[in-house]
Each structure stands twice: as C-alpha cells, then as structure tokens.
What does this fold into?
Amino acid sequence: MTRIQKTVFVLVALVAVVLGLTVHKVLNNQRQTDPTKLLDAGIVLLPQSRSLPALSMTDQNGATVAVDQFKDKWSLVFFGYTFCPDICPTTLAQMRELKGLLPPEARNNVRFIFVSVDPHRDTPQQIKQYLGYFDPEFVGITADVSTLQKFANAVSIPFIPADTSKENYTVDHSGNLVVLGPDGTQRGFIRSPLNNQKLKEQLPGLVAPKG
It folds into this structure.
C-alpha cells in the first residue's frame, strides 16, 4: 500500500468514525425525547411555546422576582400552599425525590419552583420554612391573589381562591407541574401524580444541556 493509499484509508476511516458518532448522538437524542415515551412518563409538551406575562412576585427571601425572567435553566413549577393537608407535601416530596434521581448534568439544569396560592397565610418566611423541610434550594414565590390568578391562568393551572373568613380553609388547586424552558417560556406540563421512575428516564433527555 502506497503512502497516498494509506493516507486516504486513514481519512476514510476517520470520516466513518465521525459520521458514526454523529448519527449515534442524533439517534440517542431522538430516543431520549421520543414524544410517545415523554407522554407515557406524564410529560405533555405544547405544540408551541407560550410566553409568560410580566408579573412581579415575591420570593421566600422577600426579594422581587419576575415570572417571565426564570431563564437559563429549565423550571418545574408547582402551585400549592403550605397549609395543604395532602397534595402539596406529597408532590414536594416527589419533586425532591425526582431531583435526586436525575443525573448531575440534568439536575443542575433544572430549577424547582413552588408558587403559593394562599398569600393570606403564606408569608415569605412561612414559605421558606416550609420548603426547608423538603429542599432549601427550591424557589418559593407568592403575590396577591389577582397576580397569582393571572400567572395561573397564563399557564393553564387555575385555582379557586379560598374563603379566608373560614377557619382552617383549604384552597382547590391542580397537582400538575408547569414546565418552563430556559428561554422563560412555557413548554408544557407534567401530569399528576408524578411517576418518578419514568420521569428519571425521560426528563434528562429534555432538560439536560445540549452539547
């Protein structure tokens, strides 16, 4: 074999390797974000991303946050309240478990947000203490009822404001999670109840940084 033939052979081999790796990566990404498998895991993606309204809210540290500025990471948003007797503690515990099940590259690219729909009782201090029982890195936010309803309606997670004159009142709300993309738009939902065994397989392909 001449030097030129050897060179051509090596180049062809290198091209084949590169093409093989590229095809493998593309096929692997397609498998990871297979719409059928996502849906089976409870992940419902919108046909088109949905912009969020420019609303100001208050986080668990008393700082002002804008709901349309949750960017640079994916966000999973749950609407609930700290005095909730069942759905909220269960869902937050599942969110904590899900966070632990995700591989590091996916976990580091996801923000978990708790939106209190009970501003009458849920002060920033109350929210911070409550989230500390689950994961102190979770973000907690709230606002007045009017702002909360605008946010909830914008992401199709409606709730029924409570009659705060009643003792030990409850708030009717959804258990679904809102999925926000790193551009700050809504990408979809995760249906309740959470199936963490399926989510740990499917969610990384959606939220992990694309290299």
Summary: The beta strands are 43-50, 56-59, 64-66, 74-80, 110-116, 139-142, 177-180, 186-190. The longest helix spans residues 3-32.
